[in-house]
Amino acid sequence: MPLRLDVVTIFPDYLAPLELSLLGRARREGLLEVHVHDLRDWTHDRHRTVDDTPYGGGAGMVMRPEPWGEALDEICSSQPGRTPRIVVPGPGGEVFDQATASRLAEQEDWLVFACGRYEGIDERVYEEFSSRYPLSVLSLGDYVLNGGEVAVLAMTEAIARLLPGMVGNEASLAEESHTGGLLEYPVYTKPAGWRGHEVPEVLLSGHHGRIEAWRHEQRLARTEQRRPDLMERYRTISSSE
Ligand SMILES: COC(=O)c1ccnc(N)c1
């Protein structure tokens, strides 16, 4: 069964890149299906209003609960016998990392992304739908965007590329950054010499054991240098295995 993604947003055009390249091929090959919905289709006033001023005062606007309620009611019940996980991208969520992408790719076959804008979505939408469906608030990292759409593009790519049949050479997934908790090793291609920079001799040796050992060393060194936090976790996991 293909992974189904529904995305609810007030900027449907933002999700146009989901039609392109890797994801476009995945859709054509039936590995993935993406349905983008305009939240304003669930408004009923002339101005198709989706936001209003915050109770308690403060700057900015809050997304009204009613359009979200109607949209998620309709979308989340649109596949008889199936239950989606609702994903709300937001800076206040659990961190979305490679482990999250792997888990969602393995365990979920239907994700409904709710893209917030403005100062956020009325909290009662989370209360209502987390009582009826699995619901995750997921963050790309500790920074604020203007809306969840960019996060949906990133999460969709990170998840979809892990689906069986998506990436031509699935072995390459095993040696990427964050697979196994380490950053990726440096890569080189022809020419062997370029502007006085030479490809490391070991890679020209054809000795696969030495090449593999060198690559692992490079992953350790690069992780230590750029992400000591990951190195700490890697050591802990390695020592417990
Ligand atoms: C409105 O959404 C965000 O600002 C957002 C979403 C996901 N990750 C973040 N770090 C921010």
Give your account of this protein's structure:
There is one protein chain. The protein is 36% helix and 18% strand. The chain is of the alpha/beta class and 241 residues long. The protein has two domains: 3-160, SPOUT methyltransferase, trefoil knot domain (Alpha/beta knot), CATH 3.40.1280.10; 172-239, tRNA(m1g37)methyltransferase, domain 2 (Trp Operon Repressor, Chain A), CATH 1.10.1270.20. α3 crosses α5 (149-160) and α7 (208-226) packs across α8 (228-240). The longest helix is centred in the last third of the chain and has 19 residues, at 208-226. The protein is elongated and about 70 Å long. The structure holds methyl 2-azanylpyridine-4-carboxylate (J9T). The site of methyl 2-azanylpyridine-4-carboxylate has 13 residues, from β5.
What is the topological layout?
Blueprint: E1 3-9, H1 21-28, E2 32-38, E3 51-52, E4 62-63, H2 65-76, E5 85-95, H3 98-107, E6 110-114, H4 123-130, E7 135-139, H5 149-160, E8 193-194, E9 197-198, H6 201-204, H7 208-226, H8 228-240
Parallel strand pairs: 1-2, 1-6, 5-6, 5-7
Antiparallel strand pairs: 3-4, 8-9
Helix pairs in contact: 2-4, 3-5, 7-8
The structure holds methyl 2-azanylpyridine-4-carboxylate.
